[in-house]
Protein 1
Amino acid sequence: MSPVATEHVEELLELCWTAGEDGLLPLNRDELPTQLLCFLPSPIEPDGVVQPEVIDAMVGRGLLAQEGRFIRLTSTGEQQAREVVRRHRVAEVLFHNVIAVSEAAMESTACQLEHILNPEVTEAVCTFLGHPPTCPHGRAIPRGRCCEAATSRVGPLIVPLAHLAIGESGTVAFVHTTRHGYLQRLTALGMAPGRPIRLRQTHPTMVIQLGETELALDGEAGSEIYVRRGAQDARS
Amino acid sequence: MTPSTACHPPGADAVSVSASQPTVVVTGNPNVGKSVIFQLLTGRYTTVSNYPGTTVMVARGGAVVEGRRVAVCDTPGLNSLQAASEDELVARDLLLGDHPTVVQVADAKNLARALALTLELSEAGLPTVLDLNMIDEARERRVTIDVDRLGETLRIPVVPTIATQRWGLERLRAALLKASVPVGRVRYPDVIEEAAAHMERLLPDTLTARRALALLWLSGDRALIDRLGPQLAPELVQRLQEIAGRAQQRCPRPLGLLISHARLRHAHRLAAQVMTSAPVPRRAWLDRLGALAMHPVWGVPILVAALWVMYFLVGDLAAQRAVGFLEETVFGQWLIPAFQWVVRASLPWAWAQGVTIGEYGLLTMALPYAFAIILPIVTMFFLCFGFIEDVGYLPRLAVMANRFCRLVGLNGKAVLPLVLGLGCDTMATMTTRILDSRRDRIITTLLLALGIPCSAQLGVIAAMLSGQPPAALGLWIGVVLLVVLIVGQAASRLLPGEGSPFLYELPPLRRPKLSNVLIKTLGRVEWYVKEAVPLFFLGTLVLFVLDAVGALFVLERLASPLIVSWLGLPAKATGAFLVGFLRRDFGAAGLFALQRAGQLDGVQTVVSLVTITLFVPCIAQYFMMVKERGWKMANLMAAFVFGTALLVGGILWRILTGLRVVW
């Protein structure tokens, strides 16, 4: 085994995949589109040059094919890249939708997570998020086995409140909003992850049943409150 | 609606320890029955209704517990010590400031939410008794609570009650002596625990609620930091800010949210340990009616039916039949001839006869105005209104009217003060405290002063319009609504900030309690008599004096360009508008008398009614505006409203005469 770190290999795989999406393949190994890379931890030297031994090692392992100075993913490399990219983007959705951290924090954390998530956890997170089709930047998330299994079933598991049918129940998954005062007041009224919720009506004003509390909300809240679908009765 | 004195003098130190007599504060989530409990403990009536936000100020009373006198305060509802609105802030400051004994009233069927507040009281170190109220409603919903176990877990007295039936009250009273600080420490994320512990150590020992204060500070509670800050050394404030800032930096999510979530989780765990619930076989008919009342389709006929019934009762039964009987028969045929006979026989002086039974006589004008015209109308209105409040229809009306409120830059919650304004604009101005932003409060206060006629005025207006073609009624409503819309729109555009989002808790519809409706109506009528009647006498006296010295004639001449040329009304209407400065309903009553005397035609009736509806707020409302919004803004609003009323009235007259409308 070569001494090259797995993170670096995975970063380059991701770079090649992303470049492929943008139609940039094959890549000149001396002029890699490093702006597509995420920055932590990175195989790029401070001067913007990718360590040549990383590329050499990957060629040696059959992940990359090299013709002259041009490199492209082999089919093995593509398979691995697909998994890395999937982990990265699923993590991004997780941070963006559920935890609502800043973009910089989301990126750096997703970059670290993509190297440690195992397939089982990735599938669980993907299912939790309702098999999101795209990352927050709008790039497609490669489908996993869980996604294919889910397409035969109904819709995503976690949806905005407004997507529920009238009378449908579920539990609160998370609230994603920039209106902090509103969120605080919602929380004071008992809105917290795990609480049973039911959509009572949407017109003329949205009304929900939250446990034993009946609340009237403004329309925007319908796209800010995310609900895990399920047939639980709202009056727990 | 009985005015009450505050427990806590305004402006007093909010977060220091006071050594006054033992105080019991009744607190709890909104709409759980705090005011009923307060009433039962003290024997003092405060307004009780079925919607969150009935109590907006602190009411004070006394109770005797085992031979000891204690002061008892009723407070606005509180979801969390992290107060979100002005009325919540009042309650919060009282709890953190006076270190009282707390009776926490809880909605038994919504135990977890109540326990979240109990946990906060524990953090504030407040001795507490937990009152599981409405235990009957919980039973109906198949919720059972192991009361003893809950008491053992929290180590405080827990007493189930049904306040409206006085059930369990004696036990609650006895439990007051055994109140103790609830046990139940919430485990917060480490970042918060460390920071809070650090801050607690730094806060001076004189503050009793250190853990609660530290947590509120970490939550970034601006109001608290502003109150507490000036009492602490500047270096200490800086230290606390640093600790809070560092903790927040270590966390991607707002600390306040993490704190609330942790507390809610703990509360739900506690509730789950002591509570069992079985599925409810089917929804009660009241629940179904409650859902229908805000249904996009069925809600409309229900609203129309409610309005029709109210119009029938107030506009027809009270304003026509009752007023007709009282004014024409009781006063016109019996009382006034009797007064005239007695006065002529006992007071030989002309001026004395003038002041009592003359054209502007206290017995011939003020008395019939107040008791024959206005009193039956307000009584019936308050009765209907009390009924609607008790049923719990108002919050559903807010749901129906949210859209409309959006048009004037408000949200559905503003329906409450606006509809309350139809009862009494003065009280409604105070109720603006339940609104979520200063901007909402300003717009609502302005609209109340401008376009919301109070019940007394409304009744007179309904009576005056009943003799006119239906188009007149439509025109009056249309013009007033249009002015409200335009002014509301303009105000919402001019004022900085955005409309605050709508969030309102809907209580279940409940069977109204007749005794409460009656007591509430009586209380409001009593308040009306106390507040309005003296002003009626004062206004009449002013008119008499002005008339006697010939000034009324001069004023009529002076105002004639305005009243006669601009508004197209007879010069005699000047008197009505003059007393309208004291009370708009008094002015309306003057117009009513003019119309009855055949001095106003249909067009003049509508013009005068539109003008008096929009006319200046009454004296009481004006002072309430000063109290809530300050001198400057109150004066600005009053001047604006005055100008708008005359402007709209004059334009309306010109349009109607221009179109040659004859009614």
Note: The interface with chain B takes residues 99-102, 105, 179-190, 192-195, 200-201, 203-205, 207, 211-218, 220-221, 233, 235-236 of chain A (CB under 8 Å).
Protein 2
Amino acid sequence: MIVNTGLYNFSLDSFPSKLSPIISNVYADAAEQDRPIDFAISLRKDSLVRRFLKPQITFYSDIHAPFKPLPLSQAYALLEWGMNWCIAAHDFSRLIVHAAVLVKNNQAIIFPASPGSGKSTLTAYLSLNGWTLYSDEMAIIDLDNQQVSPLYRPVCLKNDSISIIKALHPEAQMTPVCKDTQKGDVSHLKGIDWQNYSKLEPVDVVGMVFPKYKKEMDLTIYTCNQLQAFEAMSKHAFNYTVLGQEAFNVVGKLIQKASLFEVEYNSLPELAEFLAEDVIR
Amino acid sequence: MKKLQHHLISAVLLDPKKGLNFDLDTWQSVILVLREEKLLATLYHLALDIAVFEQYPEFAQRHLYSASIYARRQSKQIFYEALLLQELLGKNGITPIFLKGANYTLRGSKNSQGRICSDIDVLVKVEDLDNCESLLLSQNWKSEKLTQYDERYYRKWAHEIPPLIHPFRGTVLDVHHNLYLPISGRSPKIELFINELEFTDDNFAVLKIPQTVMHSIIHLFMNENFSSGMRDLFDIYRLIKAYADESFWNELIVLARQSNFLVELQYCLRALEIIFSFEVPEYVSIALNENQLSWTQRIWAKHIFVNAILPQHPLISLSRQSFASSLAYFRGHWVKMPKTVLIKHFIVKMYNQLLDQVLGKHQLDPKQL
């Protein structure tokens, strides 16, 4: 089966048949393009006894397994994380930052991932409320013009955010919940369809926002200084140390062009309004 | 996905122009195989050198270029670590001698361009080993977590420090005091290799070229793991192509004789002939004439090692290769250890493997329980 994520083409050569409908739900509309595959991957059950007793599943990137097996019930999450790994471990032609990217009026805002930021909830919410989902996990940034490219991937929702988004958007297309993973309960939300995705182009980054979800706190906005933003971006870039000087330059240019904010929030609509009116130009 | 003919990989390495005739299906498979063989970035530099890179399809260019960036970073890291090591050990009167990948990179030989190494290997004198270990530990280097069994394997049988890892930089360092395991009874007199050293432009100590090549041969043909065999043999090929003259060959043959690795030298020449169509100079064949391989050794040379070295990838491999690899794996252990130790070692490894197969990998990992 071909899993086309837009920028990267995967060939998934063996996987538990139960996953078939889930993968189809997320990726089937991505037309099988007539282009070569970048990564050969598979999900395999390894051990004989473990097929019956606490069955496990291993992710393979071509012929080796970069991480330990997980319980079979987490197979879909493992597939998504495995694909992230393939991209982060092999693509050094662009800066790849652990961050969400959302776009309005052809202008992108980057939300670097920090634990407790509520990044994925925000990403899911925005993608269901008029914003274009460019990426939930990885900001793919061009080294020459610092534009960010879209990636055809779902949003990875965790724990409470699964029910929050379900309550707000019962129509949202979500994968069955994988329970008790390293990140807690996990479900993937389809935030864009192929028809819309295929029209997207790389766009400029106008803002970098560091959200913090605080239950008791009304929307509070702080401007963030360039040094803090630089530190956060370089820390969250998967391939920063490999790219070295080039990464330093790209991050430097990005933070000079973008407006930088730290926000504390407890209401998604209020935050969305601020982003649309004050960050998007 | 398109299956590849074996000779295609060596053909494109020997002559990157061949890539101009590949269709995209072929490129797709070539990229996957080269990635697993750690040779993607090597092809990038080879193609660049003869100015065909720009004519490759965009797909191939993207993957080759990307791999080269990673290799570039590794090369910088090697220089950086070498500088720190040189300073730390030098202050204490120890000269680290850089081996294998670090040797190639620091001396800047052509084969180092785009080469990916998993660790840095250095050689110190046996009497400096303890001092060297405590100096490194004082600079935050840590022993990699090993099972009790593996720790004992290193200390007792290999007479080596277990690999050290730097937790901030992620570098892995292997400190040796010989080029081959002392317990095997085959470790060469180290003086043959280090009495005369070469110093790079940046003043790093490395083995001289014949010694470098001899060590690469020992490393490849006296080992059990051939997973990077194609890359390692190609290193030897390119070193010979770049540096071999008559005095090189004479020194190499004398060194092989004195260190008792003449057979391995001939295995290597045979593999070079078969895989990279290397033409052994006539005077070399003549010099080796009186030490011809026995018929069993000839079978090993032609059928076992060659198959173990050729890439083993589902898109390319032949069924006889996995048999060859198992034999080569067994021989690698056989030559390494006295037989009583070997048998114990195999029993422990087989028991662990059996557990893995039955219960699944990592079943003994505390996190999984």
Note: Chain A touches chain B at residues 11, 35-38, 40, 46-50, 56, 58, 62-64, 68-69, 90-93, 241-244 (CB under 8 Å).
